[in-house]
Write a structure and sequence with these properties.
The chain contains ten helices and ten strands. It is of the alpha+beta class. It folds into three domains: 113 residues, Orthogonal Bundle (Butyryl-Coa Dehydrogenase, subunit A, domain 1), CATH 1.10.540.10; 107 residues, Butyryl-CoA Dehydrogenase, subunit A, domain 2 (Beta Barrel); 148 residues, Butyryl-CoA Dehydrogenase, subunit A, domain 3. Strands 1, 2, 3, 4, 5, 6, 7 and 8 form an eight-stranded mixed beta sheet that branches. Strand 9 and strand 10 form a beta hairpin. Helix 6 packs parallel to helix 8. The longest helix has 37 residues. The chain is globular, with a radius of gyration of 22 Å. Bound molecules: acetoacetyl-coenzyme A (CAA). The site of acetoacetyl-coenzyme A has 25 residues, from helix 4, helix 6 and helix 10.
């Protein structure tokens, strides 16, 4: 086992950290207050190669590994989780599925622009009546000549108001109900109408929009993967995406811990630093330990993915754990600061609001538990079967 980062991974981590500290963190409170989407940041991230960190060089990416990308998401989210989710959805849920499932022509056409940050990607799966039960979606793809007309409304689409490429999931004429009837299509921003920008508890620097698609025509060259195999595209995208959200949660929790630790050694009450009180020490000890554990789970899942190993279970475990750590420990960090933590003088209340959604999007914590339970029970069934099988030889 090797727990240290490679030189290249460390360099990418430092590149992202420096950029986040200089260009993101100083503005994050204002973006949050004004609900401002920092478009210019994504162009600059593109210039640094951070909008396509783990995209192959021949497709315009930086050609680094998936763990490097995960390190970037943690650093961006540490400064502003809204920037983190914008990059996460753009990369994990749109660019990488095109790299993985696209034809050579689709890769050539869509990936370089996305990897350069010239175009943002959006992942359009969820509908008002189809959230956790993603396979029940009703958007339709109706045959028209040698292509299809896509019609439907999608909800809570990250990057929806700013994206130029949409990965849209729809059900074809006559397709069965449920996951097996779903196909995946690549649409342009001009095919999509934004009907509403969501007001959220947090992540105010990110865009979350409702969109409508009214009979946009797509040819066969816009279908990603095979007909009726779109659900596998969505699930594979989310398998990687959930590792990204785990990294986002780690970044938020780390940011909260940094503020709490700094405050604890500066603040004096009852004649001593509050860091000298065991009540505060225990909080910091728990934070440091849980963040470390969340990061290790996240890195393990990322490593498995980049080795080409199955990572559905480990990604779900990382997201389940890291998101709970972020929600719990941002609250504890506020507690360390007391009244100050509850004010906008410190960023903790923003971290607290931002953390909550990591337990909701890209599959709620309850869905992660379903995914985990299905895997571990299937494995136990295997073991039970092995245990009862007669010895070989
Ligand atoms: N990879 C590849 N294929 C997969 C898969 C995976 N991880 N998981 C399932 N599939 C395949 C299955 O093998 C099955 O196909 P076969 O029958 O041919 O084997 C098919 O997909 C259906 O699978 P299930 O029977 O498991 O489907 P289900 O209806 O029980 O749903 C679920 C499974 C895990 C609950 C799924 O619906 C799910 O993940 N729900 C949550 C949805 C979600 O995460 N939404 C996020 C929205 S995007 C977002 O949040 C982005 C953002 O803005 C930040």
């Amino acid at each position: 086992m090797e727990f240290s980062l490679t030189t290249e991974q460390r360099e990418i981590q430092m590149l992202a950290r420096d950029f986040a500290e200089r260009e993101i963190a100083p503005h994050a409170a204002a973006w949050d207050r004004d609900h401002a989407f920092p478009q210019a940041v994504f162009s600059k991230l593109g210039e640094l190669g951070l909008m396509g960190v783990c995209v192959p060089e021949e497709l315009g990416g930086a050609g680094a590994d998936f763990l490097s990308y995960i390190l970037v998401l943690e650093e961006l989210s540490r400064a502003d989780a809204g920037v983190g989710v914008t990059v996460a959805v753009h990369t994990s849920a749109v660019t990488l599925p095109i790299v993985g499932f696209g034809t050579p022509a689709q890769r050539e056409r869509f990936v370089p622009e996305l990897a350069a940050g010239d175009t943002l990607g959006a992942f359009a799966l969820t509908e008002s009546e189809s959230g956790s039960d993603a396979g029940s979606l009703r958007s339709s793809a109706t045959r028209d000549g040698d292509g299809w007309r896509i019609t439907g409304s999608k909800q809570w689409i990250t990057n929806g108001s700013h994206a130029g490429t949409f990965l849209v999931f729809a059900r074809m004429d006559g397709a069965v109900d449920g996951p097996h009837g779903v196909s995946a299509f690549l649409l342009d921003g001009s095919d999509v109408e934004v009907t509403r920008e969501e007001e959220k508890l947090g992540l105010n620097s990110s865009s979350t929009a409702d969109i409508r698609i009214s009979g946009a025509f797509v040819g066969r060259d816009r279908m990603l993967h095979e007909a009726h195999r779109g659900f596998a595209v969505a699930m594979a995208a989310l398998d990687g995406g959930r590792i990204g959200i785990a990294a986002q949660a780690v970044g938020i929790a780390q940011a909260a811990y940094d503020v709490a630790r700094r405050y604890a050694v500066e603040r004096h009450q009852f004649g001593s630093r509050i860091a000298d009180f065991q009540a505060i020490q225990f909080k910091l000890a728990d934070m440091a330990t849980e963040i470390d554990a969340a990061r290790l789970l996240t890195h393990r899942a990322a490593w498995l993915k980049q080795q080409g190993h199955p990572h559905t279970l480990e990604g779900a475990q990382a997201k389940l754990f890291a998101s709970a750590v972020a929600r719990r420990q941002t609250g504890e960090a506020i507690q360390v600061l007391g009244g100050y933590g509850y004010t906008k003088e410190f960023p903790l209340e923003r971290y607290y609001r931002d953390a909550k959604v990591t337990e909701i999007y890209e599959g709620t914590s309850e869905i992660q538990r379903i995914v985990i339970a299905r895997h571990i029970l299937a494995r136990q069934d295997d073991r039970a079967a092995t245990a009862t099988a007669p010895p070989s030889g």
